[in-house]
Amino acid sequence: MIALYIIGGIAIVFVVLALLAPKETKIQREITVSASPGEVYAHLRSLETFVQWSPWTDRDPNSKITFSGTDGQVGSRYHWSGNREVGEGEMEIMDLDPGNKVGVALRFMKPWKSTADTNFLIDPQGEGAQITWAFRSENKLPSSIFMLFMNMDKMLGNDFEKGLKNYKSMVEEGLPTS
């Protein structure tokens, strides 16, 4: 009888946590770059260039990286497989709006499977452009419960800020477009 109360109590806690858990994760960071929206777009649509400014590249310089498709075009992909810190996954360009947006599907295989939509949005700002790096993923059970105890905005937001600073430095120092 006591075992039934314990199992029932655990089930109730699980249901309550599932109801309270966030259904999605959204992260967004911005930076202004001294470059034209066209130049910014040319860099952002290149997955080969992304690897150069990505905040995660330095975490495993020995990651196995492969590219497929025509870089900078819808359908092009970047696949990585690295240490425990970077895991394994791929990015695929899904949507291109010249001078305005690069839409990317992000698929993680390890350490756990998940997907996210990532957009790089470009907004003209005087002589430069503001770049917004926006991330959105759905949180499914049971992993959504863990999101109650993790601050994903802080964890990934710091990486986004580092990546955008890396990007700004590369573009403003004259990185050639792909």
Written account of the structure:
- There is one protein chain.
- The chain is an alpha+beta fold.
- Helix content is 33%, strand content 35%.
- The chain contains 5 helices and 7 strands, in the order H-E-H-H-E-E-E-E-E-E-H-H.
- It has helices at residues 2-20, 37-44, 47-53, 143-146, 152-172; strands at 24-33, 64-68, 77-81, 88-97, 101-110, 114-125, 128-138.
- The chain has a 7-stranded antiparallel β-sheet with strand order 1-7-6-5-4-3-2.
- A hairpin with an 8-residue loop joins strand 2 (64-68) and strand 3.
Q: Numbering strands along the chain, what is their spatial order in the largest sheet?
A: 1-7-6-5-4-3-2
Distance from first to last alpha carbon: 69 Å
Number of helices: 5
Number of strand segments: 7
Shape: elongated
Sheet having the most strands: 7 strands, antiparallel
Written as H for each helix and E for each strand, in order along the chain, the element string is: HEHHEEEEEEHH
Radius of gyration: 19 Å
Low-confidence segments, ≥5 residues, pLDDT <50?
none
Strand content: 35-45%
Percentage of residues assigned to helices = 25-40%
Q: Which class best fits the helix and strand makeup?
A: alpha+beta
Q: What is the typical, i.e. mean, pLDDT?
A: 85
